[in-house]
From TrEMBL:
NCBIfam families: PHA_reg_PhaR. It holds the Pfam family PHB_acc_N. Residues 6-64 form the PHA accumulation regulator DNA-binding N-terminal domain. This is Polyhydroxyalkanoate synthesis repressor PhaR. InterPro entries: PHA_DNA-bd_N, PHA_reg_PhaR, PHB_accumulat. Residues 145-154 have a biased composition (Basic residues). Residues 157-168 have a biased composition (Basic and acidic residues). Residues 70-108 form the PHB accumulation regulatory domain. Residues 128-175 are annotated as: Disordered.
Length: 175
């Protein structure tokens, strides 16, 4: 279970991280959450838990920047279904669906890594232990350019080909 970081929100809407002892931007809060921490935001004056409004505000800011997180049709339905039905939907179905998606994605990533390790081991690039396979480092771009051969011409094509075609055409045409 993730650790919970306590953040204080002051009257001027500034956020203060009690763990690091510094002020945070909303992007800093997003980074903390993406690092795996849960957060709890409390009003500095009253001690009231204001986590939900702060998170909703962060989602709205992200929506302004990306303009693709929540489709308009979803937002319209959200407004239409105000009440107990919507609350039940969010608490049960949406949360369970998101958790199932995350578990499925983790399982896919795990299996894909196993597949890559198996492929590397079978190709002779890996060691006896498939988990110890390390990727082959790519050469730096400058070395790649130096090793790149000059553009080859096909056997039927030479530097003189356009001239030869012109000569052939001139031979064919009756003068």
């Amino acid at each position: 279970m993730p650790d919970t970081r306590t953040i204080k929100r002051y009257g001027n809407r500034r956020l203060y991280d009690t763990a690091s002892g510094g002020y945070l931007t909303s992007q800093d809060v997003v980074d903390i959450i993406r690092q795996g921490y849960d957060i709890r935001v409390v009003d500095s004056r009253t001690g009231e838990d204001v986590t939900k409004p702060v998170l909703v505000n962060i989602i709205l800011e992200e929506e302004k920047l990306r303009q693709n997180l929540l489709p308009v049709s979803f937002l319209l339905q959200l407004i239409r279904l105000q009440g107990e039905t919507l609350q039940d939907f969010f608490q049960n179905y949406l949360t369970a669906s998101l958790e199932a998606y995350l578990k499925t994605r983790q399982e896919f990533d795990r299996r894909f890594r196993e597949w890559l390790n198996l492929g590397a081991a079978m190709s002779g690039l890996g060691s006896a232990d498939a988990d110890a396979v390390s990727p082959v480092p790519a050469p730096p771009p400058a070395r790649l350019a130096a090793k790149r051969p000059a553009r080859r011409q096909s056997k039927n094509q030479s530097k003189d080909q356009p001239r030869r075609q012109t000569e052939r055409k001139s031979r064919r045409s009756p003068s």
